[in-house]
Amino acid sequence: MNLETCEGLLSSVRTTVELQTSHIGKGCDRETYSEKSLQKLCGASSGSTDLLPAPSASTNWTASLVTDSERDSDLIFRFDGRQAAKIPDQVVPQNLTDQFTIATWMKHGPNPGLRAEKETLLCNSDKTG
Prior knowledge:
Helices cover 5% and strands 5% of the residues. By secondary structure, the chain is low in regular secondary structure. The chain has a domain at 47-83. The chain has a two-stranded antiparallel sheet with strand order 1-2. The protein starts with 34 loop residues before the first helix and ends in a 51-residue tail after the last strand. The model has no long low-confidence stretch (mean pLDDT 74).
């Protein structure tokens, strides 16, 4: 992309750039879709397991997590590197084979300097401590 100024002096430039892809599922506009729409669009299995469901009596491991009220239709959990979600053993499928898929949608905050250099999305422990 370039801008030709015709050798004239500029006092200001104002522009809008719109990025488009040829495939609806590979664009930059993920925030315009609900979580369920994204799962359908990306071909997620109907038998998938939600590891971070909305808090309830039976899914209380997400109750203490901070949420982001950015969109009303979806529950978005906010992680800042100081908290984590411990998913109960009975929630994680026990029949995983050597190959399986984990799908996540992440959005980073506006200031990269405030983020940790290392991010752990999923950790499986040997439970020894």
